[in-house]
Write a structure and sequence with these properties.
Blueprint: H1 2-15, E1 27-31, E2 34-37, E3 42-45, H2 48-51, H3 60-72, H4 84-96, E4 100-104, H5 107-124, E5 134-138, H6 147-151, H7 156-159, E6 169-172, H8 177-183, E7 188-193, H9 209-220, E8 223-227, E9 251-254, E10 266-270, H10 291-306, H11 309-325, E11 332-338, E12 341-346, H12 350-359, E13 362-363, E14 365-367, E15 371-374, H13 382-396
Parallel strand pairs: 3-13, 5-6, 5-7, 7-8, 8-9
Antiparallel strand pairs: 1-2, 2-3, 4-10, 9-10, 11-12, 12-15, 14-15
Helix pairs in contact: 3-10, 4-10, 11-13
């Protein structure tokens, strides 16, 4: 099997652009929370593809949906109508309470779409002078990798040698409502924020922060946009993370788990006041809203509700955090999170620990040098969490 590993490693190294630094494990099978490498070794997946696999690997009902829809109709483009898109609209309405939706493919596309919608709203509703609309974002944000999105990133490695950058953004500290209030001008169209900064290291805002954000946005006539691509769809113990804080954004971006891990699909959720401003020709995507992706997304949302994954995430997240905090290790500085979005901050390089966890049958990923994310599929059981914490205890103790 060493020869097989070397073969795949050489192929990837020879032909793949080196924009990732993955752990050296070659996976070929997944089921639920478990994955297997090419030698047959079994691992507990504690990343869930950055929360795209909330429903677990290869969920049986999603498999069935994929197979059935693939035999019927996969792509029409939006030049024609199909039966699956309106069915997904109805499901999204019941799930979110919003009443208008725009479907795309990747999370970054959803964010780009929300930016366009916010700018158009700023010009047509707030009467911002042409080409002056500004959007406020937070330091240490992560909203994607496109040129426009990295234009308002504060992470230099995301921006190096990719300029010139898109203007029209202002960066303020995360969790500081006063900074938001002071930064708003008559040209501010929207405030875009992650309810929890996952990629930055699982940082939660002060408890009253989003409530203050909502209040400020209403007072100042500014759209409140919540990026729920990683934090939404049950990950933090509610349908959306912002519900944990009791607020209602004007626009919501979702992706990742909307696909159930099978096919890229994302969406912007809003109302007629915002998305109703779009018109034929103003935006589009060949694959956005295709029947194949819509059938999968509808089933992915149904699984979250039918299998009670939201409640499980909340309860098992609290259970997991309590166990992580009890690990007697001098290397653990802090355990923080919400639901099954958990960050374990260390005083040593996290990648080294991830390599040791991998040897013990646990797949985790480091972020920002010293933080390990624990974000397993929401179908994980209490016993599997016990196993995971036991491995952490062995490696860090």
């Amino acid at each position: 099997m060493t020869e097989n590993f070397s073969y795949f490693l050489e192929l990837e190294s020879s032909f793949g652009a080196p924009n990732y630094n993955p752990l050296d494990v070659v996976l070929e099978k997944g089921e639920g929370v478990w994955v297997w490498d090419i030698s047959g070794k079994k691992y507990l997946d504690c990343l869930a593809s950055y929360s795209a696999l909330n429903q677990g690997h290869c969920h049986p009902s999603l498999q069935e949906t994929v197979q059935n829809q693939a035999k019927i109709l996969t792509l029409t483009s939006r030049a024609f109508r199909n039966t699956k898109l309106p069915e997904l609209y109805e499901t999204l309405h019941r799930f979110s309470g919003k009443n208008m939706f725009l479907l795309m493919n990747s999370g970054a596309e959803a964010v780009e779409t929300a930016i366009k919608v916010a700018r158009r709203w700023g010009y047509r509703r707030k009467k911002i002078p042409e080409n002056k609309a500004e959007i406020i974002v937070c330091r240490n944000n992560f909203h994607g990798r496109t040129t426009t999105v990295i234009s308002f990133s504060s992470e230099e490695s995301y921006r190096a040698d990719f300029g010139p950058f898109t203007p029209g953004f202002k960066i303020i500290p995360f969790g500081d409502a006063n900074a938001l209030r002071e930064s708003i001008t008559n040209e501010t169209a929207a405030f875009l924020v992650e309810p929890i900064q996952a990629e930055a290291g699982v940082y939660l805002p002060p408890p009253s922060y989003l409530h203050e954000v909502e209040k400020i946005c209403r007072e100042k006539q500014v759209l409140f946009i919540a990026d729920e691509i990683q934090t939404g769809l049950g990950r933090t113990g509610e349908k959306f993370c912002f519900e944990r804080y009791g607020v209602k954004p004007d626009l919501i971006t979702v992706g990742k788990a909307l696909s159930g891990g099978y096919y890229p699909i994302s969406a912007v959720l809003g109302d007629r006041e915002t998305l109703g401003l779009m018109e034929p020709g103003s935006h589009g995507s060949t694959f956005g809203g295709n029947p194949f992706g819509c059938a999968i997304a509808k089933q992915a949302l149904d699984i979250i509700l039918k299998e009670d994954l939201i409640r499980k995430s909340k309860e098992l997240g609290e259970y997991a955090m309590s166990l992580f905090r009890e690990i007697p290790s001098k290397h653990i500085k802090e355990v923080r999170g919400m639901g099954l979005l958990i960050g374990i901050e260390l005083d040593i390089p996290a990648r080294e620990v991830c390599l040791k966890l991998m040897e013990e049958g646990l797949l985790c990923k480091d972020t920002h040098e010293n933080v390990i994310r624990f974000t397993p599929p929401l179908v994980i059981t209490k016993e599997e969490i016990d196993f995971a914490v036991g491995v952490f205890r062995k490696v860090l103790g």
